[in-house]
Design goal:
The protein is of the alpha/beta class. It has helices at 13-24, 36-45, 67-71, 86-94, 119-127, 129-132, 144-148, 162-172, 185-207, 211-232, 237-240, 243-254, 259-268, 273-278, 285-299, 305-315, 320-328, and strands spanning 5-9, 28-32, 62-64, 76-79, 103-106, 136-139, 153-159, 177-182. The chain is globular, with a radius of gyration of 19 Å.
């Protein structure tokens, strides 16, 4: 059987770490970078010091900034650009996909603003149902820097096609990267997207010095909000109790490597959001996702007070302490409500 040729589209920290795993596992892997300098760094120096500093990359990992070169002969395509550019990147990719449709893996976490589409839905719109219907979503608690250092990491693979999920599992899994398969795309994608918004809330709370009780409450009630929306849209509550839900939430709300938590901390300490974002190389997905999540919840009649509070802080200039105080003063409710 002919071996797979894999194109990883997106050379941020996560894309580079995933491409490195695939190359280490012996697969012919090409990393596509929007920035030619990043591709040159990977190709010439075996490094991506802009997005994944301090990591020596596999000698066999190829890199290019030319989409046609990245996709030449690809049997597997991993989409791992920031969520707000998945559509234009994949529109460009579509021009160069010829022959049999490749197996698609979506590893970007986010909801597209204005359309409120999950990333697998964006891929379906761009590439068509025949190509994207068997897409495999990769999500779960995973800092790129830790995976790149070969520290133990476990994630979820979700797909409507179990055979595709098992195939992707075989491509990625090794002695430090473990992947579990399941079928709930909706819960998996919403868990991976919305936990970033809750991480912003947890960071803001910590930045205000409100203590670990408050952080635990925000995480737990945040998970309840994610679950309400996921179930309303057809996802499964059990998914949110797993790696793609509570696992990713814990990591992102508490880990020092969490970009969204760091942004929240800075905002809670009184820094201007635009200044914080301007000083970052990587993307904090939760900032955009807060807007999309608020729209999605409103459209489906799901109450998400923590998401609403984060949105008000980021987009309506509400004082963070006031926004969190309003959460505490809401009318009493049972713990479980729809």
């Amino acid at each position: 059987m002919e071996s797979d040729r894999i194109a990883v589209l997106g050379s941020g920290s996560w894309g580079t770490a995933l491409a490195n795993v695939l190359a280490r596992n012996g697969h012919a892997t090409c990393l596509w970078a929007y920035e030619p300098a990043v591709a040159e760094d990977v190709q010439a120096n075996r490094r991506n010091d802009k997005y994944l500093p301090g990591v020596d990359l596999e000698p066999s990992l190829r890199a290019t900034s030319e989409m046609d070169q990245a996709l030449e002969g690809a049997t597997v395509v991993v989409s791992v650009s920031p969520s707000h550019v998945v559509r234009p990147v994949m529109e460009e990719a579509a021009k160069h996909l010829t022959g049999s449709p490749p197996l698609l893996v979506s590893a970007s976490k986010g909801i597209e603003i204005h359309t409120d589409l999950r990333m697998s839905e964006v891929l379906q719109q761009v590439l068509g149902k025949d190509v994207a219907d068997g897409c495999v979503v990769l999500s779960g608690p995973s800092f790129a820097a830790e995976l790149a250092r070969r520290l133990p990491t476990a994630v979820t693979l979700a797909s409507n096609d179990e055979r595709n999920a098992i195939r992707v599992q075989g491509l990625f899994q090794n002695d430090h990267f473990r992947l579990y398969t399941q079928s709930d795309l909706i819960g998996t994608e919403l868990g991976g997207s919305l936990k970033n918004v809750i991480a912003l809330a947890a960071g803001i709370s910590d930045g205000l010095g409100l203590g670990t009780n408050a952080r635990a409450a925000l995480m737990t009630r945040g998970l309840a909000e994610i679950g309400r929306l996921a179930e309303r849209l057809g996802g499964e509550g059990a998914t949110l109790a797993g790696l793609a839900g509570v696992g990713d939430l814990i990591l992102t709300c508490t880990g020092d490597l969490s970009r969204n938590r760091r942004v929240g901390l800075a905002v809670g300490r009184g820094e201007d959001l635009s200044d914080v974002l301007e000083g970052m190389t990587a993307v904090a997905e939760g900032v955009r996702t807060a807007e999309a999540a608020r729209d999605l919840a409103g459209r489906h009649g799901v109450e998400m007070p923590i998401v609403e509070a984060v949105y008000s802080i980021l987009y309506e200039n509400v004082d963070p302490r006031k926004a969190l105080a309003l959460l505490m003063s809401r009318e009493p409710k049972p713990e479980r409500w729809s």
